[in-house]
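Treating backbone geometry as a discrete language has practical consequences that deserve illustration. In the encoding step, the backbone of a single protein was reduced to a row of integers, each denoting a local shape. The amino acid sequence and the backbone structure tokens for this protein are reproduced below.
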Amino acid sequence: MNKISIIDTEEAVSDAVSSVTHVPATSVLAPTVEVPSGKRIPFAWRDFSVGKDCEVGTTILRWEEGTVVPEGTFRLRLAVSLDIRHTIQVEARDSETGVVFGVFDFTQAPVFQIAEIPLTREFGKRVLQVGVELRQIDGSVDLRFFAPSANSPTLLQPHLMVAGAAETADVWGEFLERFRDLSTVQTFSWMEGCLLEGGYDLNQRYAQLAYETDLKRRLRLYLNEHDLIYENPRSEPVDNSIYGIEGTLPFAVIGRLYPEHASVQRAVDFWLSRKQPDGHFASGAIMDGSMLSAEGSLCVAYPLVVIARRRGDVILEELALDQFRIRRDLLVSEDGSIYLRNRLGDLSFRNWARGITWYYLGLVRGIIELNDRKDIEDLRREAHRVMHYLLSYQLENGLWTNFIHQPSSGMDTSGSAGIAAALALAYQHGILPIEARQAAARTKDGLVAYLTADGLLEGGTPSNRAGEGSGQRRVIFPVGMGLAAQLLVALDPVDDSSSCVKES
């Protein structure tokens, strides 16, 4: 299959040959552990358990006998099928000798979280020969992972990734292939929303590669003719309902492609039900409980604008504008810092890179949708202010740290990709000057160092549970890939006349 070349954007298609081999496990021996009551495995994909103690039985993965792989480096991977809210590590052992190959860290892992262990070639060959025993370290709950299956993506099944020589790798080409095979699918929320936005933009830019087919295939995982079928971030079924404001970003793409689907009106009804009354500290804000959050800019205001515009609904459009302005007024401090949360006046998570993404990318996309309005100059000025603030903290490698004003907080590829996507989009649509595009291009160059040979983006701050978003641990987080895809397309613009997405 032809791949997009991001190295030379004058040539949209490259015939680069992949130097990566994915070798999925072919069988699993695991204890029978029922899915907990009130939980559900997404899409009815097969999964298996790793018990919290040895008494329930061992879990062993095996590969087809006699499998031969090319020379290269090995990584062993697993992906979570049921939400984890604990500190969890899993040893991978030689199934015959008990020698430990390495340890997976699945602490506070959301569904679809991929973790990997680098293997020596000797260990890689042993995995193929005798298999892998999985064992929890100080486990307190039964874990579940996606199993070998003909129905789920290979990269979400237990597999070995074998990478050839680095100099032959086409990592951006591999990155874009990951949008074709469902291996980056995420929980229906801000997570999947970022991937849907990236897929939508890819289809807008690269019409000849028909990303619309892949985008609609993703959406069909969640939508049938009438229903919205999904689990919330705790793996609880919430079909035909909206679990919270962080779950509504996907409706920007759904509202474009399937504006008449019943779930779109459910989202609108939900937003209206969460509007705060006069006298509230955030009067007019659409928010969950007592917490005003930056997520509301991207996950509420932006999709609300999209739907309002397609309906010609001026009232909804004004409500969306209110969301941007309320968050500007209540999440930005006098020194220009941007906070993730305001809980009854108590601000927290100052300058968290991914929080800035939610605030800024939502704002920029909202301005783009409303570009013809003459009364949003205040929002344009805010876009300029934020640009100058962010550029003062951009590092030499083009990225930003997890808390952008704290160099010691460690690099975050997901927040960096999101910030850069906002800058590049704002330049592309005439909102910001050339400095924005130049900064975004530096980010794209800096992200290359964090792409695996098969195009997964490492170095992302974990899902922000139990303080995990504040720490130094970094993971493969496809959310960052969705944001990076938006960045790539914004840096490689095309005339609207060649767009191929059909909004029907």
